[in-house]
Amino acid sequence: MSKKREVQEYTIDTAAQTMIRRAEELGVDTAFSRADAMSPCNIGGAGMCCKQCGMGPCRLTKSGDVGVCGATIETIQARNLTRAIAAGAAAHSDHGRDMAFTLKAVANGQTEGYAIKDVAKLRRVASYYGIPIEKRSPEEIANDLADLYISQFGQQRGEVVPVRRAPKKRQERWKQLGVIPRGVDREVVEALHRTHIGDDQDYQHILQHAVKTAMADGWAGSMIATDISDILFGTPAPLLGQANLGVLKKDMVNVVVHGHEPTLSEMIVAASQDPEIIAYARAAGANGVQLSGICCTANEILMRQGIPAAGNFLHQELSILTGAVEAMVVDVQCIMQALVGLASRFHTKIITTSPKVKITGATHIEFDEHHALTIAKQILKLAIDNFKNRGEVHIPNEREDLIPGFSHEYINYMLGGSYRASFRPLNDAIISGRIRGVAAIVGCNNPRSQQDYLHTKVVRELLKQDVLVVQTGCGAIASAKLGLLLGEAGIDQVGPGLREVCETVGIPPVLHMGSCVDNTRILTVLTQMVEEGGLGDDIDQIPAVGLAPEWMSEKALAIATYCVASGAYVIFGGQSPIGGMPDRVEDSDKVLKYISQGWEKEYGGKLEFIATPEKMIEATLAHIDKKRAALGLPAWEPNKFGRSGDAKMLQVEALPLEKRRQAIYGLAAD
Ligand code: NFS
């Protein structure tokens, strides 16, 4: 057993600290205390345990060791990493597949409650692939797009179609390296085949297929999921939201939706606003139904509907500990099995809804898009009926406002308004050095590190260095809880050049871009930046870095790998799943070395595991500056900027009239 940590060491979030103390008072476990009690296995943790056959498990401990079949450490690590990436790609892609089937059903009038909300996006996406759009109804176009997207999963030969949306030069590189996926399912199946006992035994060759499998996630499954979510539920645009456990309401029926797919949660949002349900809740003595989200479901309904986020991954248990949650409705991914045991100490009902996910002891109400609204109402009524069973309630006060909803479409629009929407201002701000570079800080919480600390430490430091930050997933919720996703709150903490840009455009310095599948929006932004010109002709030339400081899921490894394949430098915090010392790669760490230096030679991007936030920041800035220099851009010089923008104008307005003119012209001159 590892040392039991103090509550403040578990998380920097004071609402979370309050609830963990409550758990300790009640004598119940949380992921934090279980992480203390469970010492991770060093051998498995380093990917050096092979249990692919019945001759093992073979636990290799030092350089030169081999398994019963003779498999080397690097072969075993490559196999384990590839299997993790395949699982992550499968999870995201299956989500995309379900969305595609929903689109097909909506197009054919077979669903209840859904509609095509964003016809403009439908037409734009269809036209990427040459689907005729003129003089056709949205349903006809949607039917063809759904068929095309459904076919991407089972396609056996050729290339998945969304890769055509990448920069031309990148597509050429992928062709040469043989990593364009043929079909999503084919690559996942082949990943499992190749890593079976007695198959692929050259670690670099195994990892080439890991890249191809991850590509099937980022440039197919996840991209399909994002496209269709926008088409059916609307492309996000900024709105006001709130985050943290303080969004739960004492006088209302609290229903927390948790998981990933927006198909169910969007329908629960619709049902919760139905007069019949509101009346039903009132009759039960509540003031209505308060919906909130956890994990990526939270992000999906937050950025489209402004439904508050109760928290990120590690808040799932903490929300139940408030005693105020009547029902937690879950679908797929990142759902802890511990929820059911914990809920049994309270009145909370855990309701599973996916045909793919049941949890022993939970109530299962299977969701089906053909009767979506009816099922959503049934779930809400069950929660309302449970309101009377509530015991003691402890809801922390903490909640923060935030502005989510920065889709790539909105970023394009916001930079120039509707008559000159373009990425030009962003590229120009990077070229001039107002913005030093861009960092995408994404991914999970991990109870082995202090919740939200790594995320927000890295975000805050990079902002000071004029790095524009985009976020998705649980990382975005971490920043939201600290108030970093608001212009007013964040602006005084950012570097002078970035502040000028944010004030001029009217955006926060941290842009919430959505859920984890929406990391594909970042691929689209990077592609559009390339196409806009001035920052090279491929993604690997852009001064940008991706970071997942608190990663824990296999999906995160898939995302990292498709970002590397797209040309990005990706930094992960915490434990490396393929061994080695964090921050120090030895020659014997062949796999670690290959995914860094080897992949960089091939793809222009690389994956590294770095333990401390200070070193992550150092590596990020060094990479950004290296890419700036390679493009021939001026080195970052913060003193050059900060003399324009709204904050400065306020100072100017305070001057006496005669000095104002001089100050304004002075401003314009420099
Ligand atoms: Ni991403 Fe979303 Fe969170 Fe990690 Fe889980 S919710 S898909 S995997 S934990 S960011």
Written overview of the protein:
The protein has 670 residues and is an alpha/beta fold. It is built from 28 helices and 16 strands. The chain has a six-stranded parallel beta sheet, sandwiched between helices. Strand 5 (289-294), helix 13 (295-305) and strand 6 form a beta-alpha-beta unit. Helix 5 crosses helix 24 (554-565), helix 6 crosses helix 7 (138-154) and helix 11 packs across helix 16. It is globular and about 65 Å long. The N and C termini lie far apart (61 Å). Residues 260, 295-296, 313, 334, 443-444, 473-474, 516, 553, 555-556 line the site of FE(4)-NI(1)-S(5) cluster.
Rg measurement, Å: 25 Å
Task: Assign the CATH class of the largest domain.
Answer: Alpha Beta
Q: Which ranges are low-confidence, i.e. pLDDT below 50, for 5 or more consecutive residues?
A: none
- Number of domains in the coordinates? 5
Based on Cα principal axes, name the global outline.
globular
List of distinct ligands in this structure: FE(4)-NI(1)-S(5) cluster
User: What fraction strand?
Assistant: 5-15%
Kindly report how far apart the N and C termini lie: 61 Å
Helical/strand content category: alpha/beta
Strand order of the largest sheet: 6-5-4-7-8-9
| Strands, total number | 16
Largest sheet, strands/sense/barrel: 6 strands, parallel
Number of helices: 28
Task: Please supply descriptive tags for the structure shown above.
670 residues, alpha/beta, Substrate Binding Domain Of Dnak, Chain:A, Domain 2, Rossmann fold, 5 domains, six-stranded parallel beta sheet, 28 helices, 16 strands, 49% helix, globular, binds FE(4)-NI(1)-S(5) cluster
